[in-house]
Each structure stands twice: as C-alpha cells, then as structure tokens.
C-alpha cells in the first residue's frame, strides 16, 4: 500500500459518524502528516463548529501527526458553494499544510472530476468505498442511527427527561423503572443524603444546598455521557430552589442565584410532574407541612417550572397508570 508524505481529508462532520472515523484512521495510517479540514458555514444553521471540532479531535488525538484545520465559508447552502470558492479555500489548506499535499482522501460518492481533483491536481486521489452511514440521515433521526455514532457524539443527541414532584410522589421509583425500561441510566437526587447531615432537613446549612446544586449538576454531566438514547433525571435545581425558599429562610440569596444560573444551563426534552394522588409515605424526615398541602405545593412547583420556561406533562393516577403514561410520552419523544 502506498504511503504519502502529506495527506488531506475533509468534510463538515455534521455530525461525525463511524464512517468518518474509519476513514480518518485509514488516512492517518497512510501519511507522515495528515490535515483534516473541518468545513462549516456560519450561515447554514449547522451544529456549533466548536462541538464538531471536539468530535474530530476526540477521534484523532492519539495520532500526533494529524492536524486539524477549520475552514469557514459564507455560502447559504452547500449547493451555493461555488467553484471559484473551491480554489480559494484549497489555497488556504495548502498554506496551512506548509508542504505539498501528495494525497487527498475522499469517499467514492464524489465523481472523478470533483472539487478534489480540480483543486489538488498534483495530489493522488485516494478513494474510500462509500459506506451506508449518512450524516443527513443521522440529523433527521439521531436515535434511529444510534449505532452509527461514536459514544462521544451520541451524548449530544441524548433525549433528556426530568421527573419532578413534591415529597413522596414516586419520583425515584418512576425514574428507576423508566431507566430499566429503556436500558439506560438515571440520575437519582443527591439531596437525600446531604439533607441528613444534621439528622433532619430542618437544620440544613447554607452550604448543604450549595453542595446539592453543584454535585447534582456534575453528576448530570457525567451520566449523560453514558446514557443510551434517553436520560432520566430525578429532580433538579428548580426543586432545590423550591426547598431553598421553603427551608432556608435567611441568607438564601447566594443559593438562589446558583440555582438560577444552573437552571439557565439546563435543557430538557420532556418534563414529567408527578401529582400528589399516591399515598404519602413518611420515609425518614419528610415534611409534615408539605404532606398537609401536597396539592398546593405541587401547584407551586409547577409555577416555578413555568417561570423558568419549562412546560410540564402532569402524571396522575396509581403507579401503573403513571408508568404507562410516562412510557407513552417518552416513546413519542424518541420518535421525533
């Protein structure tokens, strides 16, 4: 097999898939130096270039001789990317390479007289057989093409489902059941152990709420990378915000600000609000005040969600009814 001093492989990688990964590895194996060109159009509504750069970097970081070059263009569509621009951009790539490009790698879906042969006439054209994987198809239905993406790309497309409710509404039970139903992971609320540091949540310190907010967010980010298509979260910072107001009283503004800041970072595809119509179970030190007005506190929690731009789906009935309705809603979400 031929070996080349300097090769080039380009694409938009929107998103990057396993077909791209295999081509990059093969091209890197055949070159002393490989330039991977990441093309993007700021005017085309594409996935953030920083995200795509990260995907490509994660793919080739074990190759010290591979260099990444980002190539923007102003065309409103790929079809509008003119031949005149081809040549100008090819000169940018050649300048970045700093030496003659002796091989250009691309898929056999390009015709013999493609931009590659026109812009790099001095290089050998190395054609990879086209595989069945398509970035266009992935963009249309990411979850249907889950196995075609590396794990570090999949997390970008995970559907995120938040489960909230007041005390003893079955949040953890439902999150656990749904995670098993969809063979994925779920994030259990971290506040349960932290709130017991003083033996009762009535004597929690300001620092306890800070710990809950920060630890929950860190675990969320870590677990998203391990999710299988869908991720379930048992409570979030807005629930903590509810308890900050309910329990902390004085000196709560710092934790309110932290909860608001974390909320601004969070995005959910579905929010399930569990109603208070299952039996209240006094499990440890649950609030009797909340137990006495579960409907009122549920309405308050719904109001907090609305104020932060979250539209909720309310689940009521017994545990089986809630479970069936939740599965129905999640199935609908995953078909989008």
Could you walk me through the main structural features you see in this protein, from its secondary elements to its overall organization?
- There is one protein chain.
- The chain is α/β, with parallel strands linked by helices and 336 residues long.
- It has 2 domains: 4-139, HUPs (Rossmann fold, 3-Layer(aba) Sandwich); 158-334, P-loop containing nucleotide triphosphate hydrolases (Rossmann fold, 3-Layer(aba) Sandwich), CATH 3.40.50.
- Helix content is 45%, strand content 17%.
- It contains 14 helices and 10 strands.
- It has helices at residues 18-29, 49-60, 83-97, 115-119, 135-140, 151-157, 171-181, 191-194, 206-224, 237-248, 253-265, 288-292, 294-307, 319-334; strands at residues 4-11, 31-40, 66-72, 103-107, 124-128, 159-164, 186-187, 230-234, 270-274, 312-315.
- The strands form 2 sheets. Strands 3-2-1-4-5 form a 5-stranded parallel sheet, sandwiched between helices. Strands 7-8-6-9-10 form a 5-stranded parallel sheet, with helices on both faces.
């Amino acid at each position: 097999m031929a070996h080349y001093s300097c090769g080039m492989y380009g694409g938009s990688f929107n998103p990057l898939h396993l077909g791209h990964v295999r081509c990059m590895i093969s091209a890197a194996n055949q070159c002393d130096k490989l330039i991977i060109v990441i093309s993007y159009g700021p005017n085309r509504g594409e996935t953030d270039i920083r995200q795509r750069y990260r995907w490509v970097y994660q793919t080739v970081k074990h190759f010290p001789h591979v260099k990444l070059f980002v190539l923007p263009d102003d065309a409103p569509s790929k079809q509008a990317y003119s031949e005149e621009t081809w040549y100008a951009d090819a000169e940018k790539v050649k300048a970045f390479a700093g030496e003659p490009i002796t091989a250009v790698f691309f898929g056999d879906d390009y015709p013999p007289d493609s931009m590659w042969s026109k812009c790099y006439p001095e290089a050998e054209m190395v054609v990879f057989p086209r595989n069945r994987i398509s970035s266009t198809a992935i963009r249309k239905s990411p979850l249907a093409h889950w196995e075609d993406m590396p794990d570090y790309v999949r997390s970008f497309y995970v559907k995120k489902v938040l489960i909230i409710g007041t005390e003893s509404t079955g949040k953890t039970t439902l999150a656990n059941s749904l995670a098993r139903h969809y063979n994925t992971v779920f994030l259990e609320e971290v506040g349960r152990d932290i709130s017991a540091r003083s033996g009762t949540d009535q004597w929690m310190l300001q620092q306890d709420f800070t710990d809950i907010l920060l630890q929950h967010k860190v675990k969320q980010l870590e677990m998203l990378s391990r999710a299988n298509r869908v991720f379930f979260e048992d409570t979030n910072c807005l629930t903590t915000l509810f308890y900050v107001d309910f329990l902390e009283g004085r000196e709560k503004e710092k934790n309110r600000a932290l909860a608001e800041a974390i909320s601004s970072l969070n995005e959910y595809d579905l929010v399930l609000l569990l109603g208070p119509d299952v039996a209240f179970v006094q499990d440890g030190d649950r609030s009797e005040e909340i137990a006495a007005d579960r409907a009122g506190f549920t309405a308050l929690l719904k109001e907090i969600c609305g104020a932060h731009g979250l539209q909720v789906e309310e689940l009521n009935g017994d545990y089986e009814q809630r479970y069936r309705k939740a599965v129905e809603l999640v199935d609908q979400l995953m078909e989008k």
